[in-house]
Amino acid sequence: MLHQHDLGLYEKALNPALSWLDRLSTAKSLGFDFVEISIDESDERLARLDWSPAERAALHQAIRESGVPLRSMCLSAHRRFPFGSADPDIRARAYDIMDKAVDFALEFNIRVIQLAGYDVYYEDSTEESRQAFLEGLQWSCRLAEQKQLMLAMEIMDTPFLNSITKNLWYEQQLRSPWYAVYPDLGNLSAWGNDVERELEKGRGSIVAVHVKETLAVRPGFPGKFKCVPFGTGCVDFSACFRKLEELQYKGPYLIEMWYDPQQDNLHEITAARKFVEDQYRKALAALKEEGKKP
Question: Which regions span the lipid bilayer (predicted)?
Fold first, then answer.
């Protein structure tokens, strides 16, 4: 926990060979409050949406035994099966994935489904793809409203939806209390946004925050959005935490990193957590020095 904030760990930070009980227990032993499950574009993780009763029971048992909940879901499967695809079969699959993801979330008491902000990923973006994407979000919001489940858009690693400002347009179109934003501090920073201003704009709808390091986009370099060691990139974490404290954000933080079999996995996670905690303490100290109570 960071002060008044729960701290979560992204599932992909851990060895994928672990059982769910071992995965959740490991997260607990490393000091995390919850785990974010991934439903990505791989066949293996997509298959979770169609698990048998026995497979679902095993995850329920792992949650009970470990005492570690799955509070959020990273639903990046729509990168492969986007709402905006020109292929009607792919669009139909996008709706099916959303429907099943909502049911999965409800069963496992997942509070937030993080959406991927791509109208399309492996196709060219067009006016038609953007309109189909919006229609998919409209349908998803109606479903979320029926089930009282929060959908939150991630600020992404492509220009299409790379700022909270851009997501505000979708919030205005959707007008749903069940649609919010899930900013990624790394992605926000890498695109050269005024990150503190962006966080101010999103304050009314930030339901969780990804904590990740990135390398900035610049002429001749597309940026790097994954597997950048903490402290070696472009993110001013202490400034981000300071701004969020000023805005009285009380939601969870989620450390996003990826398992590397060539590294000491548990050491890397422990080091990342310490770095984040140090940056958070630095932010609180700066506020205290200014006479602003955290």
Answer: none
Whether 73 shows a pLDDT value over 70: the answer reads yes
Q: Is 252 helix (H, G, I), strand (E, B) or coil?
A: coil
**Angle, alpha carbons 137-139-142 (nearest 5°):** 110
* pLDDT at position 1: 66
The pLDDT tens digits for 218-261 are 999 999 999 999 999 999 999 999 999 999 999 999 999 999 99
Which of helix, strand or coil describes residue 40? coil
Domains, the chain: 17-182 (3.20.20.150), 185-194+211-294 (no CATH)
Residue with tokens 């709402």: 83
Cβ count within 10 A of residue 55: 12
Cα–Cα nearest to 215, from 189, 241, 248, 237: 189
> How are beta strands 7-10 and 253-255 bridged, if at all?
parallel
Angle 102-106-109 (CA atoms, 0-180°, nearest 5)?
130
pTM strictly above 0.85: yes
Amino acid at 208: A
- What number of helices (H) and strands (E) belong to the chain? 10, 8
